[in-house]
UniProtKB/TrEMBL annotation:
Belongs to the peptidase T1A family. GO terms for molecular function: hydrolase activity. It comes from Drosophila simulans. The lineage of its organism: Eukaryota, Metazoa, Ecdysozoa, Arthropoda, Hexapoda. It comes from the Eukaryota. This is Proteasome subunit alpha type. SMART domains: Proteasome_A_N (SM00948). Its main location: cytoplasm. The 20S proteasome core is composed of 28 subunits that are arranged in four stacked rings, resulting in a barrel-shaped structure. The two end rings are each formed by seven alpha subunits, and the two central rings are each formed by seven beta subunits. One of its GO terms (cellular component) is cytoplasm. Gene3D superfamilies: Glutamine Phosphoribosylpyrophosphate, subunit 1, domain 1 (3.60.20.10).
Length: 244
């Protein structure tokens, strides 16, 4: 029955679903886990890194992209779709600079991406973009993280357990004041929930009016060891019998 309603993105099923949009959402659920935190001074993004072949150029596999000097984006889903979306967003950001002689705001470029993705759900001969994006950055007038002003958010394959973990530790997240603590929290979340090691993750940091900085793999390795020791210590403490 579903095959009758999924041949075009503009056709609703009898229960009110756009099946091709739901197929695109499934591509996101199967994509890499990504997450982001906003501190007082920086945007920190962490992504699950897929394994790279021995002969493959590692610099070609990036899921953290600059849209402008002050806006960064990461994504979960189809990388080929992301290349198109990133390219269009970068061109829009440069066009905004040319036309208005000032950088785009984070909200403007996020609305542009959302509008572009929505347009692909209303025209025949197209299919929806199979990715979900996290956009962060800084404005001249006010600081803005992700479009809905999240202090932390996630998307991708393990987004639900990651979100549950972050909500469980919401008190810690809301008090994060510096990027070092945010980087450690991202590493701890990815290790605890997704069982990743430092070779399977990438973490980046964007500060106001500073270039994007990728966190060194040795730093991630040290943080991973620290986090695993802390987790083991907490598990050991929970197994000890409580004194009456």
């Amino acid at each position: 029955m579903a095959q009758r309603y999924d041949r075009a993105v503009t056709i609703y099923s009898p229960d009110g679903h756009l099946l091709q949009v739901e197929y695109a959402q499934e591509a996101v659920r199967r994509g890499s886990t990504v997450m982001g935190l906003r501190t007082n001074n920086a945007i920190v993004l962490g992504v699950e890194k897929r394994s790279v072949g021995d002969l493959q150029e590692e610099r070609m596999v990036r899921k953290i992209c600059m849209l402008d000097d002050h806006v960064v984006m990461t994504f979960s889903g189809l990388t080929a779709d992301a290349r198109i979306l990133v390219s269009r967003a970068q061109m829009e950001a440069q066009s905004h600079r040319l036309n208005f002689e000032k950088p785009t705001t984070v909200e403007y470029i996020t609305r542009y991406i959302a509008q572009l993705k929505q347009n692909y759900t209303q025209s025949n001969g197209r299919r929806p973009f199979g990715l979900s994006c996290l956009v962060g950055g800084f404005d001249e007038s006010c600081w803005s993280g992700i479009f809905y002003e999240w202090r932390a958010n996630t998307t991708g394959r393990s987004s639900q357990p990651v979100r549950d973990y972050m909500e469980k530790h919401a008190d810690e997240i809301l008090t994060i004041a510096d990027e070092a603590a945010a980087v450690k929290h991202i590493v701890r979340t990815l290790v605890s929930v997704s069982s990743l090691n430092h070779t399977q993750m990438e973490v980046a940091e964007l500060k106001y009016r500073q270039p994007l900085r990728m966190i060194d793999h040795q730093v991630l390795a040290d943080l991973e060891r620290t986090v695993r020791r802390e987790i083991e210590a907490e598990a050991e403490a929970s197994r000890r019998p409580r004194a009456p």
